[in-house]
Write a structure and sequence with these properties.
The protein has 308 residues and is mainly alpha-helical. It contains eleven helices and no strands. It has two domains: 56 residues; 219 residues, MetI-like fold, CATH 1.10.3720.10.
Length: 308
């Protein structure tokens, strides 16, 4: 009936709201349930974090196990005569040679020289190619203009161009740095173009709707979204830098790890040759893990957003 009090009454005709204990009890009950849910959430989060930590430790143990198995097989094969020790010395012999070279300072000298060449060529490619990749990925007209030249040049091997680098720059440092730059630029360029091009258009449209200008849009939206793809190209470029540098040092150098390998081969110093090869592998692995760490630190904001 219109105008009739619609508030609830119990069967005895008493108004329920007049019983003050009901609202308080219900509130306490809700608070208790909320507290129980909060505690349950905490109990669920803690085992998950422990589980992730355990999984990481287990993965690390598995990784070390496979490395130990590799060195064990390397040690056993020449000692059992399955492989001639003249051509493949036992792993312990190579490690002893590596320690002797390191303690004498000879290995460290070649490492520093090779790293300087890699840093110069790779750093130059980062400074030039990342902005160029951003321009190609962002401006489609510029991409259509320059793409035929890019596709033609990126198919050319750096080793095939090494005689040309020697003709223009001589057998000094510039030819080796130029080769490193040439080899490293293509993975970086393609990774940058792919990252810029695959940014979600919805993010760009929303930013433009909010009135964000082009430069700020590029810095605040485009680059963070394209960063994982750019870092993938950088990691591939770093690997290519070491590969090309070693080949260049084998052909026209008097120092560096590549020279150390070819010189040990000519003098039949096989343990020293394997020591230099092992050093190159360790350096490449260290650089790769360093870049992965930088990527995780730079993208920490993304993990925080996902966790929230």
């Amino acid at each position: 009936m219109i105008g009739q009090d619609s508030r609830p009454y119990n069967p005895d005709g008493q108004f329920i709201a007049a019983q003050p204990g009901i609202r308080e009890k219900s509130g306490d009950k809700l608070l208790g349930e909320k507290g129980q849910r909060s505690g349950a959430d905490k109990n669920q989060i803690r085992p998950a974090s422990k589980k992730n930590l355990f999984a990481r430790v287990l993965a690390g143990i598995k990784g070390m196990a496979i490395v130990m198995i590799f060195f064990a097989v390397w040690e056993v094969l020449p000692r059992t005569g399955l492989v001639q020790a003249m051509f493949l010395p036992p792993a312990t012999t190579v490690v002893r040679a590596w320690i002797d070279l390191l303690s004498s300072g000879e290995l460290l000298k070649h490492i520093v020289i090779s790293l300087q060449r890699v840093a110069a060529g790779f750093g130059l490619s980062l400074a030039i190619i990342i902005p160029l990749g951003c321009l190609i990925g962002w401006y489609r007209s510029f991409e259509r203009f320059i793409d035929p030249l890019v596709q033609a040049f990126r198919q050319t091997s750096a080793l095939a161009l090494f005689p040309i680098f020697i003709l223009f720059f001589g057998i000094g440092e510039f030819s080796k740095i130029g080769m490193v730059f040439w080899a490293a630029q293509w993975p970086i360029l393609l990774g940058t173009i792919s990252g810029i091009r695959n940014v979600d258009p919805l993010l760009v449209d929303v930013a433009r709707t909010l009135g964000i200008k082009d430069l700020k849009l590029f810095i605040r939206i485009i680059l963070p979204a394209a960063f994982p793809s750019i870092m993938t190209g950088i990691r591939l470029g770093a690997g290519a830098s070491f590969l090309v540098l070693v080949a260049a040092e084998m052909i026209g150098a008097k120092s560096g790890l590549g020279f150390m390998i070819i010189n040990a081969q000519y003098n039949f110093e096989i343990p020293q040759m394997y020591s230099a090869i092992l050093t190159i592998s360790l350096l490449g692995m260290a650089v790769n893990y360093l870049l992965v760490w930088i990527e995780k630190k730079a993208m920490a904001w993304k993990e925080e957003i996902v966790a929230a």
